[in-house]
Amino acid sequence: MRTKHEQILAYIETLLIGDKISVRRIAKELQVSEGTAYRAIKEAENQSLVSTIERVGTIRIERKVKENFERLTFAEVVNIIDGQVVGGKSGLHKTLTKFVIGAMQLDDMMRYIDPGNLLIVGNRSKAQLTSLRSGAAVLITGGFDASDEVKLEADSRDLPVISTSYDTFTVATMINRAIYDQLIKKEVLFIEDIYVPLQQTDILQANQSIGDYHAKNAETNHGGFPVVDTKGRLIGIVTSRDVMGKEMSELIEKVMTKQPISATLKTSVASASHRMIWEGIDLMPVVDEGNYLLGIISRQDVLKGLQLIQRQPQHGETLDDMVKSQLIVHQNEYVEFTVTPQMTNQFGAISYGAFVTVLTEAGEMALKSKKKVESIVENVTIYFLKPIQMDSILHVKPTIIDSSRRFVKMEIDVHIETSQVGKAMVTFQLLDR
User: Fold this and answer.
1) Residue 7 covered by a domain
2) Cβ contacts of residue 310 below 8 Å, gap of 6+?
3) pLDDT at 247 over 50
4) Neighbours of 231 (CB within 10 A)
5) How deeply is 372 buried, as exposed, middle or buried, from its count of CB atoms within 10 A (0-12, 13-18, 19+)?
6) C-alpha distances in angstroms, 351 versus 56, 339, 345, 356, 384?
7) Where are the alpha helices (DSSP H) in 221-351?
8) How does pLDDT run across 195-221, given as a tens digit for each residue?
9) Are residues 98 and 179 in the same domain?
10) Could you tell me if 107 and 16 lie in one domain?
11) H or E segment and range at residue 296
12) In a domain, 55, yes or no
């Protein structure tokens, strides 16, 4: 049976897009405490099922699929710009396709406005009305209010009119930054993108026997199976190593690994990969918040996912992306890197985070070149020997000092011309192909 928290989340998913949600309403309709209702609504907000807006309340919004993650709802725009909704509140759940800055004559402006757009404009009532009648919402900058006519038009068309005290340039920058951040998040691969939902034939229960394991193994050719209780909650996992040499009549609960390592749908694939390699496991169950089994991932699934995301076009640029784009390999001997202003701290020297990224990326590139393997960083010890100023050209030389089947220890020296400015000792875990 589902917990009250899970029941509330399931109930919220059944509500119509645009419905208002309150703690008191949820508590009354589902007969739970207001504290439980509040926590469940916050979780729904984390899952992008609802959005909370000051002076408006909490509304049900459409969960965005990953392919359109860069789009924002008007409700999110209100929160980003600290805005106030002055009309069309019932349309806050809608998604905007693009925003248009109204800094031109009205006739010219309207050529760029389509349904689903957001027009950013000052105190120009005629432009606001024309935009609404074209199916586009309106964002009024400079702290101005909308006229009664504009508010009525917005209410009749379910298109938000938002007012903000910021100027047009600042507002456009804030919205663009939010979309940029969403694009970066879009590139992060989660377990929900790669996991395999399980059928009943792929699951064992604790009261079944090792004979049942072998029967399922012969039927599915799977080497391991999650073990659940009568309610479908994960309680263990059993693999071929667990049943080796055991009697066919012995119960699964006697040989299974109890409290196995698991992942949720929102666990990143990179995190799952690190955990599987560190713990030496090939199979990881996927569960929800109540520990109910949803599916399973294998090490092969994880590695395929990581390889797939590396081939995707990059939309948002992270620190790692900026560093990678500037690393130049010289005849597999050393890596050259120029310290740009974005990589510095408040003193004009290279930041700690940028320096760590430069060293680890150079080490991973060396491993790919020399050992033809993928890797992840296990441990880093860094020594700053001299300040590294902006526009400095670094020569980074990785040297393997010890290696085994699963680990590589590397010494990385950093020079500016003939002067050594830094040094690192890095341990990498090698990923199986």
Assistant:
1) yes
2) none
3) yes
4) 11
5) exposed
6) 42, 10, 5, 9, 11
7) 240-243, 252-255, 269-279, 299-310, 319-326
8) 877 765 578 898 899 999 998 888 877
9) yes
10) no
11) strand 293-298
12) yes
Assign residue 173 the CATH number of its domain. 3.40.1390.20
Q: Per the structure block, which two tokens stand in for 253?
A: 């609960």
User: Which residues, including other chains, have CB under 8 Å from residue 362's CB and lie 6 or more apart?
Assistant: 327, 335, 337, 396, 398, 412
pLDDT digits (tens, 9 = 90+) for 383-407: 989 989 988 999 999 999 998 888 8
Backbone angles phi, psi at 160, to 5 degrees: -70, 145
pLDDT band at 307 (very low <50, low <70, confident <90, very high): low
Q: Are residues 133 and 82 in the same domain?
A: yes
- CATH number of the domain within which 338 lies: 3.10.129.10
> Are residues 142 and 162 part of one domain?
yes
Tally of structural domains, the chain:
4
Residues 206 and 175 in one domain: no
- Please provide residue 123's backbone torsions phi and psi, each rounded to the nearest 5 degrees: -80, 70
201 in a domain, yes or no? yes
* Of 400 and 315, the one with more pLDDT: 400
**For 221, which DSSP code?**
-
Nearest to 116 by CA among 101, 134, 138, 136: 136
Q: How far apart, in whole angstroms, are the C-alpha atoms of residue 339 and residue 39?
A: 45
Name the residue range of residue 24's domain.
1-62
Q: What is the pLDDT of residues 250-280, one digit of tens each?
A: 999 999 988 898 988 888 887 887 778 777 7
Task: With a cut of 80, say whether residue 231 has pLDDT above it.
Answer: yes
Prediction pTM value: 0.46
Check if the beta carbon of residue 67 is closer than 8 Å to that of residue 47. no
74 and 53 in one domain? no
If asked whether residues 86 and 166 sit together in one domain, one would say: yes
Nearest Cα residue to 215 out of 206, 229, 225: 225
Q: Where are the beta strands (DSSP E) in 20-117?
A: 20-21, 50-53, 57-60, 84-87, 99-101
Q: How confident is the model at residue 25 (pLDDT cuts 50, 70, 90)?
A: confident
Q: Which residues contact 121 (CB under 8 A, 6 or more apart)?
A: 101, 102, 127, 128, 131, 138, 139, 140, 141, 168
Query: What CATH number does the domain containing 201 carry?
Result: 3.10.580.10
Structural domain contains residue 313: no
- Based on the domain organization, do 205 and 229 belong to the same domain? yes
pLDDT of residue 69: 41
Buried b (16+ CB within 10 A) or exposed e, 331-370: eeebbebebeeebbeeeebbbeebbbbbbbbbbbbbbeee
Q: What is the pLDDT of residue 65?
A: 47
